[in-house]
Amino acid sequence: MYIRVFISAVLFFLSFPPFNLWFFIFPALFFFYYALLISEAPFITGFIFGSISFGVILFGIQSIGYEAWIPLIILMGLLYAFLGKIFKFIAIKTSNNFFVLIAVISIFDLLRAYFPFGGFPWGSTSTVLLTGYRESLFNLLPSLFKTFGPTGYSLIIQSVTLIFVLLIFDNQKKYFYLKDSLIFFTFLFIPLSIYLANSNLNLFLNNSINEKVSVSIVQGNSPCPGAKNNCNDERKRIYESHLNLTRSIQNDKDLIIWPESSTGFRNDPLIHERVLNDISYESQRLNSYFLIGGDRPIEDKYFQNYGVFINNNGLIVDQYLKQHPVPFGEYIPFRDYLDWIPSLSLVPRDMIRGDKEKIFQLGSYKLSTVISFEGSFQRYIRNSIQEGAEIIVILTNQASYGQSGMSEQFLLMSRANAISNDRPIIHSAITGKSAFIDNDGNILSDTNLFTAEILNQSIQPIDSQTPYSLFGNYFNFFVIGFGFLVFLRRKYKFSL
């Protein structure tokens, strides 16, 4: 039994970057759910799967310190341990009812984006398919993302896998599982067919704006990336690298982007006039708007992580404040009780959260930004779409990921969000990888890791709505509701 769950964990992390063996995601899920059904200790089974698989997937965090990485993998282990316990309990109580079990999976996927400490949605099963995307093999892939979103698509993958698990595990009920699968695919067919008919019936808004926006990402790199470095004047050198690269730009651009942490503290344009003057001069020289990522101290114990928007006259127009801090990276939960851990001194300040999305006006276009960790959460990007954003910018640092696969994993999530919301996404990272992603999730151009370079691209703003951007995770909630009705029917013996 434990061999099966160990195999499932290994196959799961091998499906993600840097390994990119995406086709392993199906046997990984198969062995995991099969192991849970036969396990006499589902809590331990879940813990083994969560801790091993995410221990490798999130290995890049160890560059911050093992004190951050180890608690995180324990936490992911505990999350899957509780999933295992509840899954097995419900399986016994309902005699392995398919619809009730996928409702449990759906609840888990939704809650994982919110709990604990605001959620940790990394490791979505649908995103790995993007690494193996070939139009001839997965020509429905964009449509599935746009119809159901990343979480809904992940549920589909897990549901189809679970059908096969149940057919093998409980062969005597083959007829019932085949009937359930037929009902399930009917559920899928209705919204998917409506979306596929959209091109002829214009059921949703699909408006590409004719003019393109010329954008430059300035990837200044870091002289010594990682939290545990011994660089002198690192922040100053990062700022100067971005400024010097910008000075090398000769042609006018509509928008120039500096990533998260490219300014800040002693180089904050809102506090230090010399910095604002430097950037203002470049904005006027290039007749360009600037979106600048940075952070500023607030008293002695706090800071803000921001994206400041500067117009082509060199004036600060507005700013966005990051809403979702990274636990143990941008704030310490229960700090009063954990101050005895030496490595936590690397996070001496807690981030003050912003409270809403921000729409920046770039001429006649509307753009919005999320900052780093927020880009892995579907809700922040979708909220920006709801506010009218036609272009999404992700400002991120990623220096602490090192050479691990986490930068590539982040890009997969950005691609999935681009497809789901039918929006171009500009992924701007201080150490790479930076990338321009179109509304179908294709990478138009990208940079290398740990290089100082400028990435130029013309992108197409889009004003549209997909079923996912309109209705969010409606499919997941529908599955939960239907599963609940099936559970009540079994318990109280009434007909649907």
Nearest-integer average pLDDT? 89
Q: How does the helix and strand content classify structurally? A: alpha/beta
Number of domains: 2
Number of strands: 15
Give a brief rundown of this model.
With 496 residues, the chain is of the alpha/beta class. The chain is built from 15 helices and 15 strands. The chain has helices at residues 2-14, 25-38, 42-57, 66-93, 98-112, 141-169, 174-196, 198-201, 234-247, 273-286, 335-338, 378-386, 406-421, 467-471, 474-492, and strands at residues 206-208, 213-219, 255-258, 289-298, 302-310, 316-321, 350-351, 359-362, 365-371, 391-396, 425-429, 435-437, 443-446, 453-459, 462-464.
Describe this protein's structure.
With 496 residues, the protein is α/β, with parallel strands linked by helices. The protein has two domains: 2-202 and 478-492, no CATH class; 207-465, Carbon-nitrogen hydrolase (Nitrilase/N-carbamoyl-D-aminoacid amidohydrolase, 4-Layer Sandwich), CATH 3.60.110.10. The chain contains 15 helices and 15 strands. It has helices at 2-14, 25-38, 42-57, 66-93, 98-112, 141-169, 174-196, 198-201, 234-247, 273-286, 335-338, 378-386, 406-421, 467-471, 474-492, and strands spanning 206-208, 213-219, 255-258, 289-298, 302-310, 316-321, 350-351, 359-362, 365-371, 391-396, 425-429, 435-437, 443-446, 453-459, 462-464. Strands 2, 3, 4, 5, 6, 7 and 14 form a seven-stranded mixed β-sheet that branches. The chain has a six-stranded mixed β-sheet with strand order 8-9-10-11-12-13, with helices on one face. α12 links the parallel β9 (365-371) and β10. α1 (2-14) runs antiparallel to α2. The longest helix has 29 residues, at 141-169. The mean pLDDT is 89.
